[in-house]
Design goal:
Layout (H helix, E strand, L loop, with lengths): L1 E6 L6 H4 L2 H8 L4 E6 L12 E2 L9 E2 L1 H14 L4 E11 L2 H8 L3 E6 L7 H7 L2 E4 L9 H12 L10 H10 L12 E2 L2 E2 L9 H19 L1 H4 L6 H9 L3 H7 L6 H5 L3
Parallel strand pairs: 1-2, 1-6, 5-6, 5-7
Antiparallel strand pairs: 3-4, 8-9
The chain binds ligand 9D3.
The site of ligand 9D3 has 15 residues, from strand 5.
Length: about 260
């Protein structure tokens, strides 16, 4: 996968792309990341990449010519990648979109700044527009890092052998159960007894129930998408969670609990 990133703040992207898993993936040639400074393609002598909006109003708008020139330069090296503008007006990013992007071979990520980019550039060159969430950033650079990070870890070889297992737990859509390591007592708090039992079945049950309890408490929206096996439904009933789950699944999926005889 080749990521081309267009920005007016190339230094902002330095360390996120040069540490840990992404660094190793780059070294091993599993991903390639090219950063283009939009300012290098500004036409006037002040290297202006932004200007005041027609019609007046607050803030500045990114000029279309430097963006188009930078994109043209990128396309001379490698043609026909999907051009993605990171902007608050984009469609909401999630794991499904990450998977969709991971199927591409070349992504061109354009980091917006100021109040946005000139609409004519967007209309002529942008294939896809993405927002990473309903909060306000100062620009698209950190959003581009989120995309590079989340897409890269889906590519073969980037995570090593734990990759497939991890994807499974996400598609499950339950939150992870609480985790503990040594020491057995930390500031007076003990590790739950079930985890010390050595009984793998008991541990699995304890973790499953903890996951469901945590998901109900923190992300009830995720429960509605979840499907439980007949064995799991039995465990949930025993833990007294069947009622709340039925309610969260809106009554529409209560068949399972009745039919499986629990
Ligand atoms: C008049 C309101 N503007 C400032 C509060 C809107 C605005 C313009 C530019 C808000 C943010 C930005 C810069 N943000 C991005 O470029 C951005 C972003 C974001 O702010 N949130 C989530 N995802 C993204 S992707 C790019």
């Amino acid at each position: 996968m080749l990521f081309d990133i267009l920005t007016i703040f190339p230094n902002l992207l330095d360390s996120p792309l040069n540490e840990g898993i992404l660094r190793r993936a780059r070294q091993e040639g599993l991903i390639r990341i090219e950063i283009t400074d939009i300012r290098d393609f500004a036409c006037d002598k002040h290297a202006m990449t932004d200007d005041r909006p027609f019609g007046g109003g607050e803030g500045m708008v990114m000029k279309p010519e430097p963006l188009a020139a930078a994109l043209k330069c990128v396309r001379q090296r490698q043609q026909a990648g999907r051009v993605i503008l990171l902007s608050p007006q984009g469609r909401l990013y999630n794991q499904q979109v990450a998977g969709e992007l991971a199927a591409e071979t070349h992504l061109v990520l354009i980091c917006g700044r100021y109040e946005g980019v000139d609409e004519r550039f967007r209309a002529a060159y942008v294939d896809d527009e993405i927002s990473i969430g309903d909060y306000i950033l100062t620009g698209g650079e950190l959003a581009a890092m989120v995309v590079v990070d989340s897409v890269s870890r889906l590519l073969p070889g980037v995570l090593g052998c734990s990759a497939s297992a991890e994807n499974d737990t996400f598609s499950r859509s339950l939150l992870k159960h609480p985790q503990y390591t040594r020491p057995r007592v930390f500031e007076g708090q003990d590790v739950p007894e079930e985890l010390l039992s050595g009984d793998h079945a008991e541990i699995a049950v304890y973790r499953f129930i903890s996951s469901v309890q945590r998901t109900i408490a923190r992300r009830p929206d995720l429960i509605s998408r979840e499907h439980f096996s007949p064995e799991e439904k039995k465990l949930l009933k025993r833990a007294g969670l069947d009622g709340i789950i039925r309610k969260l699944q809106d009554g529409s999926d209560c068949r399972g609990f009745e039919k499986d005889g629990c």
